[in-house]
Design goal:
This protein starts with a strand and ends with a strand. Helix content is 24%, strand content 39%. It has one domain: 2,3-Dihydroxybiphenyl 1,2-Dioxygenase, domain 1 (Roll), CATH 3.10.180. It is α+β, with helices and mostly antiparallel strands. The chain has 3 helices and 8 strands; from the N terminus they run E-H-E-E-E-H-E-H-E-E-E. It has an 8-stranded mixed sheet. The radius of gyration is 14 Å and the shape is globular.
Amino acid sequence: MEFDHAGIATDDIDALASLYGDLFDTRVVHTEQLENIRVGFLDFGGSYFELLEPTGGGPVDDYVADNGPGVHHLALRTPDIEAALARVKTSGADLIDEQPRPGAWGHDVAFIHPKSTGGILLELVEH
């Protein structure tokens, strides 16, 4: 597995993308609207900041309401998400997603519950 992206919850993708663009000379390389979330990816040489702006309800909206903007999750890229999920499940971790589901950029994703990962919400991503 390799590091894929950090999911960063924000209440204003455009402002945060502009800030990171100025600070780190990066740019948004992909945007889309998912259910209740506007998503934008900033490229850091093959790894990304995935900016998540809630657009009405859902887990990211709850996260921002409870915690304010900040790091929401970390994502690990895997060539075989089914095998990665089986390994995690066999190891006894609690899964949020028992099966992969569609995620941003057309990737398959699955989340592992933070109570099984030292308090960090982890996402598995298969491109």
